[in-house]
Amino acid sequence: MTTYSPVWGPISSNVDWCERNYVVSPYFAEFWNSVSSLPMVVLGFYGMMHSYYNLIQLGTRFPVAYFFLMLVGFGSFLFHMTLLYSCQLLDELPMILGTLVFTYIMLDFHAPGESVLGSSSYINTVNISKDSKNKLLMGALLTYGFLTCLVMAMFTHSPVPMNLSYVFMVAFLIIRASSIFYYTPSNVIKTLYVVAFITYMSGATFWIIEKNFCRIFSPFTEYFHVIWHLLAGYGTYTFITWTQIVHAYLLGLTPKVQYFYGIFPYIASINSKVQ
Fold it and tell me: What burial letters (b/e) apply to 87-103, b meaning 16+ CB within 10 Å?
């Protein structure tokens, strides 16, 4: 198979995936990995535009969350297109910062006590944190993000610091979201969480197999990163939409959820108070 001379120069990233480099075009180190990043850009933009319709009721956190999904997709496109370390940072840093936004959203949902958790009303099971605690929470998360970036700067030769930080936050989000899933009687909330969880974790499985068994399962593993991009992008989009719906219920609102092409959930309108 023909290998083109790279337009972007020698590879400087600290990770190179299973897809063979520069076999489609001299402008793309990993063509399919690059192209498969673009749906994240589209999903992030789509979610951001819809969340602006509900900005007054639900706040700015959700457009920001969708924006980071879009930013990750764009950074991932550049990273896989060039395999340069500078572009790798455009992929990894938005992943860390975006996950910090998700963590802030999830920590803003807190359970006040067992007596309330035993209530049959979902609105009474999880409450929104006080503003005074939000500032402390934001400061703690920014500190965590800064320390992660500092360690990444100290170990530019290794992807381990970024991976560990990211996996730790994802694990926390799963545990936190599972507790909300357990206590809510809403079928819509339960279904969306299950879809987001299964989709994202399925994608993560392909990522792990590619990372550890690239040569063993070659040439199939050459396209495992594509599957990771598609599943993780959709799972993340669904997760953000899920947090929007949870937040709306916590505010005592009734969100109307619809599906674009029967696949992509979004809040079409927020009509009334929860009865």
Answer: bbbbbbbbbbbbbbbbb
